[in-house]
Amino acid sequence: MIQYPSKLIEEAIGEIAKLPGIGKKTALRLALHLLKSEESSSIDLAKAIINLRTLTKYCQVCHNISDEDTCGICLSHRRDKSILCVVEDTRDVLAIENTSQFFGVYHVLGGVISPIEGVGPSDLKIDTLIKRLQTGEIKEVIMALSPTMEGDTTSFYLTKKIKELSEVRITSIARGIPIGGELEYADEVTLGRSIVSRTLYDQN
Amino acid sequence: MIQYPSKLIEEAIGEIAKLPGIGKKTALRLALHLLKSEESSSIDLAKAIINLRTLTKYCQVCHNISDEDTCGICLSHRRDKSILCVVEDTRDVLAIENTSQFFGVYHVLGGVISPIEGVGPSDLKIDTLIKRLQTGEIKEVIMALSPTMEGDTTSFYLTKKIKELSEVRITSIARGIPIGGELEYADEVTLGRSIVSRTLYDQN
User: Fold this and answer.
1) What is the ipTM of this complex?
2) Are residues B32 and B93 in the same domain?
3) What is the pTM of this model?
């Protein structure tokens, strides 16, 4: 147990080390960096964090992070509203948008089913997904969840649920992405191609 | 160039990615983590950062981070004030304190001489080091800077400066093969130096 020379730095390290992937040693390094930098940079960082958490809105249609009540993708007339891509979170939307290979719309679940982390279907934006499908406007649902145990479970759960209610075509991004890899770390070419050569969900 | 779905998240990512060792992808991951967590945890983090930067004091004697004007080590009657250990920053004080092998006092330079990063002798706490030596209370100065180009340059500069002014004994922390380290994996310079500056077997 290291004894820090001041309560202020101990508290700052404690808070910074709560972030995922950041341990006490990295937190100490970051805290010392802030102490050496201009006071304004610490204040800007703190303000940006508070603004992010307190002012961020979510699109009421697709649940992606947005500046407005409805996001730019959902509002755009150039996007094909008949193709819906189901993703875990904003990172995946960013990754897919970055490929310039997808012109449909998204549905951001806000997570995947994970019994270990206590995330069940009711914690995800599944109700609104079903409602969007019930309008009949959507002709195809692309499952673009990470090919992990949790992602596969969620895809399976959703597919079963959708098929009970709707005749919509359900596809999955092609398994060009290495199994066990996180979607956001896939290179653009692989990720783009996996969207173009998506396959029927049952054929996997 | 990734286009983020909201200005708030773009600003937060920009600020977080200014921290050393954190890129845009990690910053996005941390920002999404904050968005998913309780609002209070973002506010606590922001407060801790502002408090750290605006309220942290430095010991007026050794320049280590402190809650008071003079730090606990400098005030302690159990510490040997005649032995002074010169270190780069607070991390090094913590590392040495953690060994429970040093009972003297410290002097925190606040950096090392680095022409590439524009850090010269005047940017370091060298004046106060000289003043401490001029009191005559200190009998030994231990140079405990990192064995890098910058650390060695700083040790060399300080040693020259101290010798001009004082008869104090100047030592350096031992350089050699780390305890538990395999001999064959040691670099040539370290291994060579460990042979040249070998010690009597009993003294280890």
Assistant:
1) 0.78
2) no
3) 0.75
